[in-house]
Amino acid sequence: MYFEIIGEIESIETIAISGRIRGIMRLRKQYGSAKWGKLKGVAKVRLQNGSIWDAEIHWYEAHSVGRKKLKIKRLLD
What we know:
By secondary structure, the chain is mostly beta strands. It has one domain (3-76). Helices cover 10% and strands 64% of the residues. Strands 1-2-3-4 form a four-stranded antiparallel beta sheet, with no helix packed on it. A hairpin with a 3-residue loop joins strand 3 and strand 4. It starts with a strand and ends with a strand.
């Protein structure tokens, strides 16, 4: 699903770090060895059809690499 984040991501929480991430080997192979974290937060997003929603976003992040593989986990009211 294509989406665009509008503004800042708020209420950021860490879900897992390095060895606790299910796909850590894939991340390291694709983006390099780093201290990876899986995070979640809430952001306002614009969907492909143009509608704007608040959504819970999940992503992977490493200090030297940045945010990767952002996805909408659920749309909020």
